[in-house]
Amino acid sequence: MIWVINQSPGDITVHITNTSQGSSDSYIITTNTAPYSGLNYWNRSGEETITVTINSTGKVWTGKVKPYDQVTVYDRTVAIIHNVDVQSFQ
Asked: What is the CATH number of the domain that holds 49?
């Protein structure tokens, strides 16, 4: 699963390819929205390409992500933490 967190000053649109599994839809993530699986979570089992568009400026960033990565989008920077250890409440 890939988590995308929006810390930019505005909304972003995120698309992650789905060659390994999951939906091919693009999603809008509002600024400073707490992550939850209905909006910020992509289920993937292999390497994919992510495209992030900052809606207010139209700036686009594209890169590679792997399952269990966390992508945090800031105003002018994208930070990727690889292989995040995600655990659920039991």
From this structure: 2.60.40
